Amino acid sequence: MKLIRSASRMAAVARRFRQQGRRVGVVPTMGALHEGHLSLIRHAAARNEVVIVTIFVNPLQFGPREDFARYPRPLARDLRLARQGGADVVFLPSVQELYPRDFETIVDVGALAERWEGRARPGHFRGVATVVTILFQLTQPTNAYVGQKDYQQALIIQRLARDLRLPLRVHLRPTVREADGVAMSSRNAYLTAAQRRQASGIFRALAAGRARIRAGERRAETVARHMRRLLAAAMPRARIEYLAVVDAKTLIPSSRLTGRVALLAAVRLGRTRLIDNLLVDVP
Predict the structure, then answer these.
(1) CB-based contacts of 64: which residues, under 8 Å, 6+ apart?
(2) Active-site residue identified among 34, 37, 43, 171
């Protein structure tokens, strides 16, 4: 496995892969790798001739009171796991390498980024869209793989690639969960033992909403109210930022459920903010 820190070196290596006609899969991450990331890397390795894993904790997507400074950075472990998962290249740039002193350009993806996470974290998706655009330009992938756990972010990356006519396909892969249903996330490491036990309440509430829909409920507010009641009972000390039933493509709430819908949740447990979602095809 090759470790590359220089942006110009990464671009040169990617050009060579393209010239050789090799199919390249990229898995963009912020490090602190877990089984969710490894599932993406393994999936990419099974379908591409070269796999590039990017590790970059992106300052542009953190707000002034968010956890950029304390975000976990277990580099030696990350490199070991990336190699085990099947990565051929790890791209590990510094902040200065991607954002030199005179850097000014920001990528804004519009209305899709203004709801839910975009409203809760102003500027977050501009940071995501900007860094992903840079990483795609430098790695020149045929395919990119992102997880459903950050569902709104995944939609935005797909929209970005489509709107900017980037020559790649962005694949959405299912959320990987712990045995109790908790979505795997680097931020789970922040939870105390008691908070970790409570965290499964998020998935249970979403699963209960899914069951209501599959049983025939078509009123979005009834489903949302049921989920909120269950979540409040399971996690009495948590603060619910949002718990919503929306169209899976537009993320816009609708009163009557049809087609594919997304159940979205964002919850604070102490200082830790957790997000999760489920997709439901309405019978």
Answers:
(1) none
(2) 37
pLDDT tens-digit readout, 52-105: 999 999 999 988 878 788 888 999 999 999 999 999 999 999 999 999 999 999
Question: What domains are defined for the chain?
Answer: 2-173 (3.40.50.620), 186-276 (3.30.1300.10)
Concerning whether 171 is annotated as a catalytic residue, the answer is no
Nearest-CA neighbor of 242 among 111, 148, 120? 120
Element containing residue 241 per DSSP (H, E) = strand 239-247
d(CA 240, CA 198): 13
Query: Taking Cα atoms as reference points, which of 58, 36, 49, 129 lies closest to residue 89?
Result: 49
Question: Which run of H or of E encompasses 209?
Answer: helix 193-214
- Interstrand relation of 89-91 and 50-55 (parallel, antiparallel or unpaired): parallel
**At which residue do the structure tokens 């979205």 appear?**
264
The model's confidence at residue 10, banded by pLDDT at 50, 70 and 90, is very high
- The secondary structure of the chain in percent helix, strand, coil, rounded to multiples of 5, reads 45, 20, 35
- Tens digits of residue pLDDT in 205-260: 999 999 999 999 999 999 999 999 999 999 998 999 999 999 999 999 988 999 99
